[in-house]
Each structure stands twice: as C-alpha cells, then as structure tokens.
Amino acid sequence: MLPSTAMAFHVFLIAALLLLPLPAAFSKAVRTQSLLANPLSPDPITQEQQLSLAAPRTNASTLHFRLAHREHFALNATASDLLAHLLARDAARAAALLAAPNNATRPRRRGGFAAPLLSGLPQGSGEYFAQVGVGTPATTALMVLDTGSDVVWLQCAPCRHCYAQSGRVFDPRRSRSYAAVDCVAPICRRLDSAGCDRRRNSCLYQVAYGDGSVTAGDFASETLTFARGARVQRVAIGCGHDNEGLFIAASGLLGLGRGRLSFPSQIARSFGRSFSYCLVDRTSSVRPSSTRSSTVTFGAGAVAAAAGASFTPMGRNPRMATFYYVHLLGFSVGGARVKGVSQSDLRLNPTTGRGGVILDSGTSVTRLARPVYEAVRDAFRAAAVGLRVSPGGFSLFDTCYNLSGRRVVKVPTVSMHLAGGASVALPPENYLIPVDTSGTFCFAMAGTDGGVSIIGNIQQQGFRVVFDGDAQRVGFVPKSC
Ligand SMILES: *[C@@H]1O[C@H](CO)[C@@H](O)[C@H](O)[C@H]1NC(C)=O
Ligand SMILES: *[C@@H]1O[C@H](CO)[C@@H](O)[C@H](O)[C@H]1NC(C)=O
Ligand SMILES: *[C@@H]1O[C@H](CO)[C@@H](O)[C@H](O)[C@H]1NC(C)=O
Ligand SMILES: *[C@@H]1O[C@H](CO)[C@@H](O)[C@H](O)[C@H]1NC(C)=O
C-alpha cells in the first residue's frame, strides 16, 4: 500500500491529466513512418535486370501471370531518363482520361468506321506488360495491361503498317484456332467502332487514340494461353493489320476495363468477373528481381488473395463504362484528417459524367481535383516540418525535399479514406519518390482541373488491388506483392 501523501499526489496527478487541456505539441503529434531514402541510381539498366515472365501458379480456376514494368525493356537508359519519359507519358494519358467523359458521344459513322474512340493514349496505355500465348500453336505476345480500355488487340501479319515490337508478329494464317467474327455477330455490334468487310462477311474493328494513332483490322475469335498450359478459348480480339503509334515493345493490349469487350468481362463465364494485381516498386531503389515481380491473377485466386482486404464499393459512370470508379472521401496526413476536402470536388455527376475518382493501372501519378490536392499537400507540408525543402519543385511536382546524405528519414504518414470504411495507409515510397541521383524526393501527387481524379499506380504499389466484379467492390491488401 502506498503512503497517503504519495497516494494523494497520484490522485492529483491523474486528475490534473484528465482535467487540464493537453499541451498543443502533444495533441498534434504527427504520426510518422520511415522512408528508406535511396536516390535514383545513376547506372543504366542492363540485360541482367530484365525480368523472367514465367508464371508459377496457374490452374483450371485461376490464371496467374507475371508483369514487367515497361522500363525493363529500356536497355541502357538511366533511372532519370526513365522518370522523364514516364512523366511525359503520364501527362499524355492523364489528359486523355480527363478528356474522355467529355468526348463520350455516340460515334459518327464514316465509311464503315465510326469516329475515333478515346480510350487512352498509346504512349501512356498501361505501364505493365505480360506475356500471353496467342493462337494454336501459340505465338508468344507481350501485351500491355490496361484498366483504362476494353478492346483486346495485337498486331497481325500481314502488316499494312506495324510498329517495331519485341518478338514475332502473330500470323493468323498459321493458327488453327483463329476464326473471323461475322458482321451480324452480337459481339461485333458491341464494338463502339465496328465495320464490315461484306466480301468476306468479316467484322472489322478500329481503336483510335487521342493523338491520331490507330489500330485497325479484323475482329476475330482466338485462343489465348497462359503459362502452364491454361487455355482460354474464343476470346474476341482485334487482329490489327494497320497499327500506327508508339506502343513500344508490346505486341498489343489486353484491355482490363469494365466494358463488355474487356478481357475480364469475356472470361467471366469460366473464371468469374474478378481479377487482382500487385505492382511492385518500379524504381531502382527497390528494383524488382525475378522473385519479387508484379503479378496479375484472374478467377478464384484473385479473390482468395484478398483475405484481410479493405473493401470499398466499385462505382460506375453510365457515360464511361470502361473505368473503375471508387468513392474517395478524404485523406489523413500525419494521423490527422485533412480539413477542407469538399465532397463536391470528388463526387461523380452521373448526369454529366464529370467528376468522380477512377482507379487506373496505366496512370502513374495520382491526380486530385485541385482544391483537394492543395488541402492534402498543405497538410503534408505542415506535417513535414523536419524535412529540408528543395525549392522549385520538379516537373509536375510542387513539393520536394532535399534528403541528400540521409538514409532513413521519418516522414508523415498518408492514408486515403474510401466509402464503406476502407482506409488505405500508404507506404512512404508511394508518396515520396526520388526524382534524381542527388537525393531530391517529391510528394508524388498532383492537382488537376479536369473534373475526374485518378488514383495512379505509384500510390497502388505494394498493395494487391482486387477488382471484385462479382461483388462490385474494390479491395486493397497491404504488403502483399
Ligand atoms: C547498351 O550498351 C552496350 C554497351 O555500351 C551496347 O553493346 C548495347 O548494344 C547497348 N544496347 C542497346 C539496346 O542500346
Ligand atoms: C475531346 O474533348 C476536348 C474538350 O471537350 C477537346 O478539346 C478535344 O479535342 C476532344 N478530343 C477528341 C479526340 O475529340
Ligand atoms: C488455383 O490456384 C489458386 C491460387 O493461385 C488457388 O486459390 C486455388 O485453390 C487453385 N485451384 C485449384 C483447383 O487448384
Ligand atoms: C541538398 O543538401 C546538401 C547539403 O546536405 C547540399 O550540398 C546540396 O547542394 C543540396 N541539394 C540541392 C539540390 O539543393
């Protein structure tokens, strides 16, 4: 038992703690986490750093394959070159996505083809590539994965126009499983931009991009194979004989959008309407090895991997059927809710199709409606008092720090809050990224005046992002690459 004076003192102390207002410094303690501040590597990328895309786990109910970031195909480029290219592609893609809802009018007919459809720009159409077998026997094709578009297509011989790709161009004349889609087939009518070759009764497709690049050719049905022999028959693909654009290295594109022609929609009957991907950090500081690469999974395994996920409802824009919308409510920085984030800046207007927030695999830097971005950025600046500011910004980033000479740096935490109670606590490398070889790191989000906000792939790094189309929800599983 305590002596009574000591007891009285304790009672006083407890009462004082309960009654007195807490000191300001204590109540405002900024929650931090440790960033490993590795600058960009000055060394160019070598052959040894290229990824093996062999997939380890594929079975009858689950397709599972590895993804490589497009930078793994850029031999001899340095990390700084790659960042400059990435930011240029990203600006083009963001501009195309922002314009898309405004341009989503019914296509005009013009000589069998409708007017150009906007579904992302070639330079920015997806940052991650996967290997897919096309036809019987299978030709290996490197395909861009893109949640921002639907149509699956690849370059086909004979080429009227083909750009340079890695590996052989697929030749449908050598495939036993290739079949043309006829003009009256319902799937042909699902194309926004369909045509008909009446002589052959063969459906024609065309996808044109914002900068005038285009892929056009026969719409066909083909077998796709994945590692370990998993086969998916009768996938409707565009066999592009006329392809003009800058789809560097890739043979074509695997559309992962929400529309009816996308790959997940087409395989829904056999595999269910779900897929998930995990994107590892693409930068040199955490260069992925073959044992730590990005993956995408379709089918049962996609949702099985979601144990412990934080889910939010998947939203839809009636005017932009391709995109995955989520309802972003706000942010916390340093453990405190960011004030001044107005819901009207983040909400989708279903009548006009403007506003809202989409989740995109092919945009790198998150774009937030400008007032929201400014509120989050100001909160970050206020919380990051211990970091040395690097004046002037970098490219589209306006908040940068000089972390030169420091290895481990305490930085304020950042979380996104989504409808349905989902909170996504970002790892530090998802919002403070190295932009040069000398230790400048920038807050990797930006403001936009385009109406729609985009959650980009830098902010998705390290999470398994589950697109659960069956339950109409999107999940984020931390630390699960
Ligand atoms: C990369 O550099 C090496 C050595 O300088 C050279 O042999 C090789 O051809 C280069 N590769 C490319 C793709 O430029
Ligand atoms: C899309 O709409 C924007 C503005 O509404 C316009 O500036 C742009 O030229 C349009 N793009 C296409 C390809 O029609
Ligand atoms: C297929 O693989 C997934 C994980 O990759 C697993 O969850 C599922 O149970 C497997 N199914 C069969 C039939 O082996
Ligand atoms: C960053 O800080 C270091 C001192 O720690 C200084 O030498 C260097 O010039 C600074 N870098 C820039 C870009 O200002």
From TrEMBL:
GO terms for molecular function: aspartic-type endopeptidase activity; DNA binding. Pfam families: TAXi_C, TAXi_N. It comes from the Eukaryota. Gene3D superfamilies: Acid Proteases. InterPro entries: Aspartic_peptidase_A1, Aspartic_peptidase_AS, CND41-like, PEPTIDASE_A1, Peptidase_aspartic_dom_sf, TAXi_C, TAXi_N. The active site is at residues 146, 360. Residues 128-477 form the Peptidase A1 domain. Keywords: Aspartyl protease, DNA-binding, Hydrolase, Protease, Signal. One of its GO terms (biological process) is proteolysis. SUPFAM superfamilies: Acid proteases. Residues 1-27 form the signal peptide. Belongs to the peptidase A1 family. This is Nucleoid DNA-binding protein.
